[in-house]
Design a protein that fits this description.
Elements: H1 63-66, E1 72-73, E2 84-85, H2 96-99, H3 120-123, H4 135-147, H5 151-166, H6 169-175, H7 183-195, H8 199-212, H9 219-235, H10 239-244, H11 253-266, H12 269-284, E3 290-295, H13 303-312, E4 320-326, H14 329-335, H15 339-353, E5 357-362, H16 371-374, E6 381-387, H17 403-413, E7 418-424, H18 433-454, H19 460-469, H20 471-479, H21 492-501, H22 511-521, E8 528-533, E9 536-541, E10 544-552
Helix pairs in contact: 6-8, 7-8, 7-9, 7-18, 8-9, 9-18, 9-20, 11-14, 11-19, 12-13, 12-22, 13-15
Length: 553
């Protein structure tokens, strides 16, 4: 579905500030690039999946010199037979680690070929006379021959190149009207330059950005460190290698599990999702003796502990509960084993509460699920749960199979009592690159600000948590395209359209669920806001909606 102004639902927070208008950005018609394997420089640490690390790094000592290498390579030594004039337009940005291996233009052998094939700008030579005073005139004559007799064009080209070569990043930004110290504006300006393949602008801005970001700084500075690495990875078409080549940089599984728990406790986003979904399920299966829950992202199974406890307290005794858990590789790595560990843990807890319990494991990706995998039995009240998972399932923009809508139709065919959907309220699925970059910057700024309130900026655990639990999401959104971009969020209005096309109808969350969430938020900052619209709950930070929870039947 295309991104249009009408596709974005009105934000539930009435005092919502005006957000950046994507239409203000200009972007080229260049096709989106898939990601290819690229080995990043040794000082670059970019993270895998939602839970891996990406360390900001300083620019290389020679980086600013490298990015301002001469566009003209002139050799007037006794051994030189010709001058070489490289067209500025033919030079494209190459990351420092790639560029360092190829040498600077001035260090390469000049061409002595008399061939007339190829671009005359990049291949032509002119004999250097012994009189050095003729050198400048020879160059002008050559340019005039190539560009025509209009001396204004020749002078303009020479002046433009000379200006580019002499400008330092600071002066260049001042000339372009980019305010110094405005990190957000500079990040977006750099994203526009990346979209337009403006190598000079990129080379000027990236070193400046790296001076402005820090993983132990203010929220925007910390987020900026990962946004910059995402831009660099995109330029190198290395987004895919973030997942592959940096596997060795993952923390131990036990450490990753600790960081995930740290994030769970630091802010209420996961608790909001779990509690609102559980409340909707408990109401939908009220009075049922046999309950089957299909969880498309069971993770460590933490969501179901409170529901088992609530079902145990039912008047007349608890129902029989069966949970089918669908796994993901990150959760498996964190727990240090397969779904049998989740099954044992939940079985133990159900035993403590005296709830008859069965666990079924399904260790396949969500987009691979078919009806035969789910083992639905007659006489069971079925509930299907999607907590922060459906946006990972590819839609029609990625594959003609359109697994996102296929899965929703499959679930509808099972006639569930309830489907619960918890998703990030962000518009990154089909948005073009620059608006997507701005949306990611806006969304994660609010996330990082809310974390900042809870934990000191120099806290090592906070740094690890952000690097291992958030950074890869950010880099994936910025660096990757096509099937490699797995983070594909949609706003609630789009989810609503998909669900209704699949045959679902809204099942408003009750006032009891609303009251339970408000009680939860009393333990957190007053800057967390809860809003309800037509039975749909939104949790936000200040004026920015971040997570939305809804139920369907």
């Amino acid at each position: 579905m295309a991104d249009t102004p009408t596709s974005r639902m009105m934000h539930p927070f009435s005092n919502m500030q005006q957000r950046q208008n994507p239409n203000q950005f200009q972007y080229s018609a260049n096709p989106q690039r898939p990601c290819h394997t690229y080995q990043s420089s040794p000082d670059t640490h970019v993270v895998p999946q939602h839970h891996y690390s990406l360390n900001s790094h300083s620019p290389d000592a020679n980086y600013e010199n490298q990015v301002t290498q001469n566009k003209y390579a002139l050799d007037s030594s006794a051994k030189a037979d010709c001058m070489r004039h490289d067209s500025p337009s033919s030079n494209s940005f190459t990351p420092p680690s790639v560029r360092s291996g190829s040498g600077s233009p001035s260090s390469q052998d000049d061409s002595h070929s008399d061939s007339t094939n190829g671009s005359p700008v990049s291949a032509s030579c002119v004999t250097v006379t012994e009189d050095p005073t003729d050198l400048k005139q020879k160059l002008k004559d050559l340019e005039a021959a190539m560009l025509g007799p209009d001396s204004e064009i020749v002078n303009s080209l020479e002046s433009s190149v000379a200006n580019k070569l002499s400008l330092e990043p600071e002066k260049w930004m001042q000339q372009k009207g980019i305010p110094r110290g405005n990190l957000k504006e500079l990040l977006i300006t750099c994203a526009i330059a990346v979209e337009e393949n403006n190598g000079l602008a990129i080379d000027m801005m990236v070193p400046e950005l790296r001076k402005m970001v820090a993983v132990s700084g203010e929220p925007l500075e910390r987020l900026g460190a990962y946004m910059v690495e995402g831009l660099v990875a995109r330029l190198a078409s290395s987004g895919h290698s973030i997942y592959k080549a940096l596997k060795c940089k993952e923390p131990k599984g036990s450490d990753l599990l600790s960081y995930m728990h740290f994030l769970y406790e630091a802010c209420p986003y996961f608790k909001f999702g779990y509690m609102s979904a559980n409340g909707a399920i408990a109401e939908a299966v009220k009075g049922e003796d046999r309950i089957h829950i299909i969880d498309f992202h069971i993770s460590q199974g933490a969501q179901w502990i409170s529901l088992l406890q609530a079902l145990a307290a039912r008047p007349g005794g608890p129902p029989t509960v069966r949970i089918t858990g669908i796994d993901d590789s990150v959760s498996a790595y964190a727990r240090g084993g397969g779904l049998e560990l989740v099954g044992r843990r939940l079985s133990h807890i159900a035993g403590l509460y005296k709830v008859p319990f069965e666990f079924c494991s399904l260790a396949i990706a969500g987009d691979e699920v078919e009806e035969r995998h789910l083992g639905v039995r007659a006489g069971e009240a079925l509930a299907v749960n999607f907590t922060l998972e459906l946006h990972h399932i590819p839609d029609e923009t990625v594959s003609t199979a359109n697994h996102r809508d296929r899965i929703l139709r499959l679930v509808k065919s099972l006639s569930p009592k309830v489907l619960t959907l918890v998703e990030q309220e962000s518009n990154t699925n089909t948005a073009p690159f620059v608006p997507r970059f701005a949306e990611t910057l806006d969304y994660y700024t609010a996330i990082f600000e809310s974390i900042d309130l809870t934990l000191p900026r120099d806290d090592k655990e906070r740094i690890n948590m952000e690097q291992h639990c958030l950074a890869r999401e950010i880099v994936n959104l910025v660096a990757c395209e096509g099937a490699e971009r797995v983070e594909r969020h949609e706003v609630f209005g789009k989810w609503k359209a998909r669900l209704m096309m699949a045959g679902f109808r809204p099942s408003p969350l009750s006032s009891l669920v609303n009251a339970t969430i408000r009680t939860l938020l009393q333990s957190y900052s007053v800057d967390y806001k809860l809003a309800e619209t037509d039975g749909v709950l939104y949790l936000g930070w200040k004026n920015r909606p971040l997570v939305v929870s809804s139920a369907w039947h």
